[in-house]
Design brief:
The chain is α+β, with helices and mostly antiparallel strands. It has 25 helices and 16 strands.
């Protein structure tokens, strides 16, 4: 349902090195980049990324593809979500083709998004008319521009304003209920015939948006005293709290070159930081940071900083975040922690000291490794053997959560340093089955060696294959193919000629800028796998000029074979019967075509 023209634009504007580099530690190697493959365990780099082709390939395990394939395989995304992810990264909106599904029907969840949008507009209009709510927002230091940018509103102190405005029919009330905007009363509490009441009452409302900017939920902050202080929408068909981050949509709109995310606890923390220009702040929705949060974060950036309140609850939240972060900690990623002064949260601190001083604090944050060591050390007496053994026992299950790789080995060495024994000995003790220390298996797979790619040029392979290789490597040269060159292949019957003809016609009618666009156009189609395999091989052609020359040479060779084949057929027929007038004319025409080629040594 996503138009091919949009996929082409997405691939043309995306930078595969930037996207993969935010998830894998890439190193420049000539015209390409290399790394240890993220799809299999290895110690020597066999994973290569080509910015020219916008294509990646591992010579060890064979993983390969475009930036969309990488998102699908590495981040375990379905194709539409990968498109959405890349589009959001580039600040583009995925066209929905009038919101129609495969059967031509409007998607069932679209009316729900409409309801959320209408209710949000009602909340913003109510805030604009309510002096008390405006006074609260002003007291919290929010300016008008920030309120408008985040769509902040006010749910009136009423039991049924939303219900009356948007629940006029049974179907509408069902939608409001499904979205968590109204709550069903318990038996015996029904009044005036209403079985429902508004969930959000007398609260400042923070719309929660998905990656496309659609409102999927709300968070409400009570104006005066009352519990709960913050109230979120419940889990719905649109909203899954454990995977969403508040202000992520606004962050990505504000920054196209996102390098770091700052994770805070509250809506107001994130909003105020954005207002002060720290527009890479996001908030967890009143929950602990989940594994799904980390997956979303590391799809976008390689560095995340957690800034929690300086009280006991903030420190507890930080420790929970560390434990959930461990499975995602690996080389190329930075996970750091900022602990604020006691009695402060990010909202109050940035208001007190300003953006420059606050960001200066981010330069002295604790890396995950040092925070883990510090926290465990505070619960063990490291001056005694018993205390160090206790430290080791507490560290073991945390270390076991780390994925295989350099970071895990370095963490083992750091823990061993504190315990006072060598890393190998510590690992042996952990692996020995000591109570409470069940070892996790280590990878003993031999290092993968890079297999040199076979050169597919220099005369090897068929003329069809050579022509296809040049077109898929430098698709812009398709514009140089002349009508006579194209028409000469109509009678060609070489293996693979159908793919070549289709490729030429497509690229001439719909020009492509790079290899990745071609691969995505043929994804799932006949010949798509063959095109990908060609890109997995190194080639000696260095630029489009040489590629165009080789393409014309291959097309000329194929045209010559067509001529020779037809001449041979006519000559064989002439030995057994007379050629008709049309056949004689064709024979003379083909002979004249062959003669100039022979004259120039073709």
């Amino acid at each position: 349902m996503i138009p091919q023209t949009f996929i082409d634009e997405l691939i043309a504007r995306a930078d595969i090195v930037e996207v993969i580099g935010s998830r894998v530690s890439l190193k420049k190697a000539g015209r390409e980049y290399k790394a240890c493959c993220p799809f299999h365990n290895e110690k020597s780099a066999s994973f290569w990324v080509s910015p020219e082709k916008q294509f990646y390939h591992c010579f060890g395990c064979g993983a390969h593809g475009t930036v969309l394939r990488f998102l699908m395989e590495h981040d375990h995304m379905p194709f539409p979500e990968a498109v959405e992810e890349l589009a959001t990264r580039l600040g583009l909106e995925v066209p929905q083709e009038a919101g129609r599904g495969a059967g031509g029907q409007r998607r069932v969840d679209e009316p729900l998004y409409d309801v959320m949008s209408h209710v949000s507009r009602f909340y913003t209009e109510t805030l604009a008319k309510d002096a008390r709510a405006q006074a609260y927002v002003s007291k919290r230091g929010l300016d008008r521009e920030t309120v408008e940018r985040f769509g902040i509103g006010y749910a009136p102190n009423s039991w049924n304003d939303v219900l009356r405005r948007f629940g006029g029919t049974e179907e509408a009330r069902r939608a409001l209920s499904d979205l968590g905007l109204i709550v069903e009363r318990e038996r015996g509490q029904i009044r005036d015939g209403d079985r429902h009441y508004d969930r959000f009452r007398d609260r400042i409302m923070f719309p929660i948006r998905d990656s496309r900017g659609r409102i999927i939920a709300f968070g409400g902050r009570i104006l005066d005293q009352g519990e709960p202080k913050y109230l979120n929408s419940p889990e719905t068909v649109l909203f899954h709290k454990g995977s969403e981050l508040y202000a992520l949509y606004e962050t990505r709109r504000a920054r196209t070159n996102l390098k770091r995310l700052l994770v805070v606890e509250g809506y107001m923390d994130a909003v105020r930081l954005h207002q002060y220009g720290i527009n890479y702040a996001v908030a967890t929705l009143g929950t602990a940071t989940t594994p799904e949060h980390f997956k979303r974060i590391f799809r976008l950036v390689s560095e995340v900083v957690f800034a929690f309140d300086g009280d006991r609850a903030g420190r507890a939240a930080a420790w929970r975040a560390l434990q959930h972060a461990l499975p995602e900690a690996r080389q190329g990623r930075e996970i750091r922690f900022l602990f604020l002064p006691d009695g402060h949260d990010p909202d109050s601190l940035v208001g007190e000291e300003g953006a420059e001083a606050f960001e200066h604090r981010l330069e002295s944050t604790l890396p995950l490794s040092e925070y883990l060591i510090r926290e465990l050390s505070e619960h063990s007496d490291l001056s005694s053997a018993d205390g160090r053994a206790h430290f080791s026992e507490n560290a073991r299950p945390l270390w076991a959560k780390l994925p295989e790789g350099v970071y895990r080995e370095l963490m083992l060495a750091r823990i061993a340093e504190v315990v006072g024994i060598g890393p190998q000995r510590l690992q042996e003790l952990w692996a020995s089955g000591h109570p409470g220390m069940i070892a996790a298996p280590l990878s003993n797979a031999p290092p993968q060696k890079r297999v040199p790619a076979r050169n597919v040029n220099g005369g090897r392979g068929s003329l069809v294959r050579q022509a296809v290789l040049q077109l898929v490597s430098y698709p812009t040269i398709a514009q140089e193919i002349t009508e006579p060159e194209r028409n000469a292949l109509d009678a060609c019957e070489e293996p693979g000629i159908e793919l070549l003809r289709e490729l030429m016609d497509n690229l001439r009618e719909h020009p492509a800028l790079n290899s990745a666009q071609v691969i995505e156009r043929w994804a799932g189609k006949a010949g798509g796998d063959s095109l990908e395999k060609l890109l997995q091989r190194e080639q000696i052609v260095a630029d489009a000029v040489i590629a165009a020359r080789e393409l014309h040479g291959a097309l000329d060779g194929l045209a010559h074979r067509v001529v020779e084949g037809r001449l041979k057929a006519l000559e064989e027929k002439s030995r057994s019967s007379r050629l008709g007038p049309e056949e004689l004319a064709e024979y003379q025409r083909l002979t004249s075509i062959r003669s100039p080629r022979e004259a120039r040594g073709g």
